[in-house]
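Before going further, learn to read the protein records used in this course. Taken together, the tokens spell out the fold as the letters spell out the chain. A record is reproduced here so that you can trace the correspondence yourselves:

***
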Amino acid sequence: MYDIRRLILLRDLAEHITMTAVSELHGITTSAVSQQLRILEEEVGTVLTRKEGRVLRLTSAGRVLVDHTSRIIAALEEAESAVAATAEQITGVLTLATFRTAQTRLALPVAAQLREQYPRLRVRVVDLMPVDSVPAVRQQEVDLAISYAYSFRARDLPLGLESEYLFSDPLVLLAPDALRERVRQHGLVAVRDADWITARDGAPSIASVLYACRESGFAPRIEHRSASFAAMAEMVEYGLGVTIVPQMSVSPEHHRLIACPVAGGNRQVGVTYRRASLERPAVAAAIHALRTVAQPLRLAS
């Protein structure tokens, strides 16, 4: 019988391409990864990988094995979930990943609700952006992730994952006093010559700025950068420029900076989980709690 740990290494190599990436993912050396894959090839009795330049590609046999590995892992988790469902009480540890602006409105109320309803369930909350939290769900490092996808971007989930929509978080333009009235009359085109504040290149939120400006017929002149929506709002308040942020990220003290919504722009917030874990009582309870807490936000969006 094949070793499941070696199968997982092969699966991760198929996704991450290099031995270095797999070794970093699992916290072991590249030589250890290589050794385990060689042993797996001996167990299977055929070549599973082929070197092409600096990367390893899977052979046909390797791809077949990876496909079956995903099913094996799902079957094992389904068995664990089924056994857990026979318990009289919900116990164990549940890890919930959340991005920062959803922490106060969603993750913490859900964690408090679960702890109150199920005293023997330990709930852990970790701060992760969706680009990290979704892979963490797949790797079984976290059980669920509060995630998002921008409305203008297609989203493909890894095999075995599901995402349930919770609510839409509209995108809004923040502008200083001198520009807000003009924006309300003419829309985004009124700030085509303004300085812009955005996240760093590569961050998901910068795409929302570039997309909205392109739809309005101009390219933004980006003068200031920040990794924090709160810091961006402060820059706007001091008159340094304008920005586009999700409405949920705007604190009450900065609500007056909202000049207008961005037409057709929103961040669709949801919960991502492994399909095979859905029957696990703790996971099902967490999803139910998220629906409850998110309901007022859904009605308001």
Notes: Residues 29 and 257 are 50 Å apart (CA to CA). The chain has ten helices and ten strands.
